Amino acid sequence: MPQLVLFTKPGCHLCEQVEALLRLLEKEFRFEWECRAITADPVLVERYQHAIPVIWLDGREVLRADVAPIDRAALRALLERAEP
Q1: If DSSP codes are grouped into helix, strand and coil, which group holds residue 5?
Q2: Cα–chain center distance at 47
Q3: Which tens digit of pLDDT belongs to each residue from 4-25?
Q4: Coil vs helix vs strand at 33
Q5: How confident is the model at residue 84 (pLDDT cuts 50, 70, 90)?
Q6: N or C: which end of the chain has fewer CB within 10 A?
Q7: pLDDT value at position 66?
Q8: Cis bond leading into 53, ω under 30°?
């Protein structure tokens, strides 16, 4: 089963939107996921302070807010690629 991690920071409106989309999509796709705030890890803060939200899928970065638009279609495409 794919493992997804959503990296967020407190007060981030876009992070909240992506989390809501993931909650909707988890009904359509089988994946385990968790939401982690970057604030507890100085390495993640340095790496992602201006790129949040970020999604890792099976241990690799697959979506970064400053690189790709985040919408339901983009998240659906990520999950479809992850299905066996």
Answers
A1: strand
A2: 15
A3: 999 999 998 889 988 999 998 8
A4: strand
A5: low
A6: C
A7: 67
A8: yes
